[in-house]
Amino acid sequence: MTTSRDSTLLGDPDREAQVYGTGACPYTGRARRLLREQGLDHVYIDLDEPQHRRLEALLQTHTGQRTVPWVFVRGRFVGGYDELDQEARLGQLGTSPADRVAVLAPPSETPTRPGREVELGEALAASSGRKRPSRPETHQLVDPMKLMELGLTVEGETEGEPLTLALIEEVAGDEGAPLQLVMAGVALMDELELERESDVCFRVCTGRCQSWGALDRLEHLLSLRQDDRGDGKPSFDIEPVECLDRCDRAPAVVVVTEDGIAGLDAARDEDLSAAVEQLCEG
How many domains does the chain divide into? Predict the structure, then answer.
């Protein structure tokens, strides 16, 4: 099946199904065959094609899953082949999280505590991928395609020169985009690396941690750095990272100094302010 540019929209609710995979992966073929058997028309996006290769990083960030294939049904991320097969066996494909609870638990056995059905449904929907915080998500993920476009714009402006925060600020101004979004786009670009200007660096996860306020933490750090910088050399750097592999501690921030590395779990603005004051005073 051929694809258009629009068909790469992650989790497109207007399509019955989407499969992102590779021709060499047998599970990609099995997922496509299973969707056909279930009567679901699907769009296939071949990640080996040059125009689609950058999508793999977006999919990993968007879903937390690291391996092909990525399967979406009516805009909902299902998982890989195993998760797709499980939902097909249980008759859950295309249903909402609450509906899937009803499939697993007959009415007489369904918990009666208010809201429990929704909680179980959300747990099922998030069962694939890496471990996440137990507390509810507080923020919406930014469209990864938008972030990719911002990252590509920055990449086009570097022209082989070292990447600086000043250049990112310039792109943000030209694009009329918040600086923290452009920084998150930079994190998706494998070829881009921010030039270090100081001995202290705050590394901020701007991937899945977005759902727990990571971009707010990044914005706060940027404001602290702006106040700190003045006319001289900044006392700390900020590096956006696609994933810090600390998803159960989101929003994840790691501080890198000459003395070592320290993690700030479930970082808050006040935690970052205290760390800057402690590490960068004077």
Answer: 2
